[in-house]
Specification:
The complex is a heterodimer of chains A (about 1000) and B (about 475). By secondary structure, chain A is mainly beta. Chain A is built from ten helices and 50 strands. In chain B, β3 and β4 form a beta hairpin. The longest helix of chain B has 26 residues. Chain B is globular, with a radius of gyration of 25 Å. β30 of chain A pairs antiparallel with β1 of chain B, so a sheet runs across the interface.
Chain lengths: ~1000, ~475
Amino acid sequence: MLFLLGISYAHAQQVKMVTGTITDQNTFPLPGVNILLKGTTTGTQSDFDGKYSIVAAEGDVLVFSYLGQRTTERTVGASNIMDIQMEEDAQALEEVVVIGYGNQEERKIIQNVGVVREEAIENLQVVSADQLLQGQSAGTQIVNASGVLGSAAIIRVRGVNSINSGSQPLIVIDGVPITDTAGNTLNRGGNTGINPLSYVNPNDIASLTVLKDAGATSIYGSRGANGVILITTKKGRRNSRATVTLDVNTQFSQSTDVPDILAADEFRQFKSEVATLQQGSPVSPEDLNLGAIGSGGTDWLAGVQRTGISQNYNLGVRGGGENTSFFFGLDYQDTSGFIIGNDQQRASGRINIDTDVTEWLKVGMNLGVTNNRLNRVGVENNIDAPFTTAFLQSPVVKAFDDQGNFAQSGSFIPNVIARVALDFDELKTFRVIGNAYTEVTPIDGLTWRSEFGIDKLTVEETVRNAEFNTPGGAAQQIYVAEDRWLTNQTLNYTPNLGEDHSLNVLVGLNYEETLRTRLNVTSTGFLTDGLRNIGSGATPSILNGDRFPSRLFGLFSRVSYDYQGKYLVEGSIRRDGSSRFGVNNRFGYFWSAAAGWVLSEESFIEDLNFFDYLSIRASLGTVGNDRLGTFPSLGLFNAGGFGDYNGESGVVPNQPENPDIKWEESETLDIGIKSTFLNGRVSFNAAYFKKTTSDLLLNQILPPQTGFTSISRNIGEMENTGWEFDFNTVNVRSENFEWKTSFNLTTIDNTVTKLNADAATDAQGRRIIDGTIQRAIEGESLNNFFLIRYVGINSQTGDAEWLDVDGNVTNNPGSGDRVVVGSPLPDFSGGMTNTFTYKNLDLSVLMNYSYGNEVVIDGLRFADGNDAIGGIVNIRRQNLNFWRQAGDNAFLPSPTSSTFNLFNQRSSQQLLDASYLRIKNITLGYNLPERAIERLGGFISGLRFYTTVTNLFTFKKDEMKGIDPEVTDDIDPRFQGESFFTAPQAKSYSLGARLTF
Amino acid sequence: MKSYKTIGIFLGLLTIASCEKQLEVVPEDNVATNTVFNSFATINGAVVGIYSKNQSGDLNGNPQLMSDFMADNVAFVGSFPTLQEIDQFTTLATNTTIDNIWLDAYELIGAANNVIVNLPEVSPADVTGLTETDKTRFVAEAKFLRALTYFQLVNLFAQPYQVAGGGNLGVPIVTNPFEGGDISEFQKERSTVNEVHAFIERDLLDAAAVLPSDNGLRAESGAARALLARLYLYREEWTNAANFADQVINSGDYALATGYDFYDDNPGSPENIFSVINTPTDGPQDESVPGSDEVYVNFYNPSPGGRGDAPFSPDLISAYMAEPGDLRFSMLSQAALDAQNNDTFFTTKYPDIVNNASDGMVLRMTEMYLIRAEANLRGGTSVGDSPLNDINRLRTRAGLVNLGSVDLDGILLERRKELAFEGHRRMDLLRNDLNLRPGGGSESAPGADKVIFPIVDDELTNNPNITQNPGNF
């Protein structure tokens, strides 16, 4: 009927040919746009240049639609020409999100995933890809380990889920799970290793998806328990003119905050004052062998820092034709860090291509190659670490002698400037991550995707110590090759069941082989520093020469169904087998089930006229963790250096037998709500999760009389419950000005619910896993700092005071007086981003925060007090405030007090409140307006200038003055929040330009 | 299209079948428990492994160092808070250096128990090249090393025999290896010092009866008897001590060296009865723990190269200077600055600072003469030779004049000057009821709480049956 009406109308009006050009919001022509004469089935498409022509009459309505753009309707007017500029759909919910082994429309997602899109990260200048996640996604917590280049960061998705089996999430790049073995490089103090994500060029990344609940991670089976981070690199665009983006920037960096330590004369003054008081007769600095006041010294802290400079050049080309799309990227970064001797050069290239060979065959390849050269320095708790030694070294020790040559320090704390200058420590890595795939569509709706991927890592670290630092010289070389190849074969079937029903079935197979080969050789006895190679040393020895093979085989399936896009259900199942487990328990099964209800499609919600989108979803499922070394179930003896004696080969017991060892399993319940209202201006997501991990592999500490330190048994249980909130608003939206805010908050409560029956117990009879500074307590969380309580200095007596276990003041505490005093786990944490756009200017401010967590800075046992290491180390300025007379409010006890030398024993004196709010990134950018671009000759299509400040300022407690709250010297979850003298994060300023043509 | 589908499904099934077999992967660098006793080479390897455990600087190195600075031979000016604690007699049970001693000792005992308990069950018919003599010899070597370790433990963690006649608490005695089962068998309470000594004595008598008199550089019957002599001396069983020392002296297998070149890198010298042999590629450090600090060599040597933490004490220097010309001082010391820039002397008995791999002295002929002399003097006997002759023999080698007569103080002085830095001084003072420090107070007096080590925190937390030593640890 309508059609006839339409035609009769058309008769009334003059039918004509309407033509025009359709462009997108960046004024690029848009081919393939559907143009429909409304109310009819007459339509056409725009061509390669975005031009279209259609027969219509004045007054007809034309509907323009294109995936990803807001559907536009225009009424045909008097003119025959109608140019349309499409806009990107403000409701981002039409977009497609990458999930495990597939994609899904965001509207229909009932898994709990956090998506970090290109817009959120394109302006962040970062050195490594994990920094892109900080503060961006609820439930994901990133704690940087230190400011040394290349240091790994702790990444936790929904808290700590394992005690011994690693708590880092699985990282998948374009479908290839990458290896992240911490032991591939030499330990430089602190146990953080090199960051696996430093081998992925952040400029190549299009988006990151964090898979959080069981519905999302269960399909990764035995590896999904700590969450999965899917990284998708940039891809090309079909039917799109190739765009070239060139980005050049320079960055300057300095340290954020360092403690205030004494200069040489202050040190002499302090030491002689203290000695005078202690001995009762005047003692001069010369008497203490410190030299006279005024005889000079060294500012070590200034000597180990410098202004770091980084240059970064990035080129990206993306485009595509009708059948093919491509992305090609090149990147070069040359960074010198703010710590001396620490710099890095990284070159990387990427090519991502996909093409439709025929109607039913599509092939593609993603390949990224990175070459990295890192000049390393000690990280922490190590006399080679510049920051540790700069704090400890006495300021009266000279770095240079009178002739300007390096001077020996005269103690075991070396001249660290000579160490860094003369010693050579270089890490070269070469990594190839890529995959090639074919997609065959034999019948409509059925796709067979066959994929082969590799992650090939070659690491070579060379160390050469000079004669000055190590008599006889020393050299070490470690070669590690870690190769993984894998294949994924998936069958994806989406039958056409009509408009109301939508079904997708996925069946797949995943097989991976990983081989890690390591050769570690040292030598001593070099005649001169000029002999650089390890073969020239007199006494070589092989420390390691070994291979670690492992294999994984998984079968999985996922079924998703929805009715009218309103009622959604999904289920998945996976069976995983791994070479790591004993024969008794080789295979594990993991399943998940999820359901969702899009309430905004229901009439009773639509009638409210308030929600643009509202859905609730819930999921339940199991997932596993398999990170526990290569052969944990066999009883093993070690051969090689461990067991040799006097030239004879020997073997020593290394690991007790354990045939029943199995998977750790996590069961997660997740309930969430997603909503958007006020015409897309506000969106609010909230989720509650409860994750119970059972069969936790615990290194059950064995009584020392067994001769083994521990045995791994599946005996523990742990629970994490929490809330995640995501709040995005468009506060102001006017023609020239826009202000958007994005805020997220996560709170996680961690409880160890069960430890082994024969575990050690504490004074209250609760089972524990003990450590030097913190312990895990059954019924409480995994991380509890367990220290003697320090009270302060008694202002009347000048004695330091502690509390004994009953809470009474004591001057002589023992290890039995330790109690739980804090935890490194925050009460809540998250981030906030504010973006302001005014005409061609944009400003974005990213902040991240953490509240309620503490840290223990073990290094304060040396930097405070008078007698650490016999009193030769430098101390913090607050130690000048020692007790002199009654009524003094002092930091340090009286030098004549019996507690003077006990002051710096391990206690809560080193425990500090590390809550913080950090202004992580401020970026100000200016896009050259169109008129200016045209005046430049129309060659370029965009020019942007930007300046970025990273880690500008941190709001933190006074007691943290000089200490970075975001430090940890071990990624092992049992030691989180402990630090010795970790180098702080860098504060950096950068200036850059981005040219698009 | 159908054919593609068929091929696809067929390929898929094929892949599944072949993949599962691939999951059986074997380790390439370890030997599994069930195969260690299957060949002669690995059985010998298991025994060699016990010697390797004994190389640990926590068993031969650090205890000697601590023995020296707790007593009056070394003035410790060093670095590590754990060692400072011990030096100041303020030790806590959480002291990690002491923890390492306890853990390493029981690891060695576990490795030895594995051989002692499991090897007798192996039949020579099943293993090519293995004879019954081999089996008994291997078990005897394991017993010797086990006894040596228990002796070290009971000397450090329990008050000496003299304090309560041996009725005070010693250390737990473990005789079985751990094989993944019930751990309650390894949560034993402490046996008394007498019980531990009896256990050591039995092990050593068993070993002495079976070990050959020449076993290369490994444990021999002479070593077992020498250790027995020391045990009896500490227990004041003078006759036994003198007899066993005399047996070793007259065995013909060893001889007093003419000079002092038997330290470091000379384990084959006739002076050495048993020593811990460290080489540049195989030393006291635990390679599995990067940067581990079992580096007593580092402490005993001055910087650069060493830390300069453990120089001669002023008291020891005066002891040598009282009789100038003592070769044990002039040949075995070097003048240098310590870690606090004071002029002093350092021993040269552990010179390998490049690889931290000097040999550990355990049993040598000189000690046998000293034991014989002291046992004879205090027992009123003259087994082998008179105490005066034995002492003068050592003094002559040191370039000093003969004494006319000798008393207990004189013998103890010679012991001190001969065996300095070899781990004897602390026990020598304590068993003779002398204060560890010259002019020392109550904290370093014999029987004081902290002249011995606390039972380590690891043992306390994991064993409900253990008793801590008295004192606020």
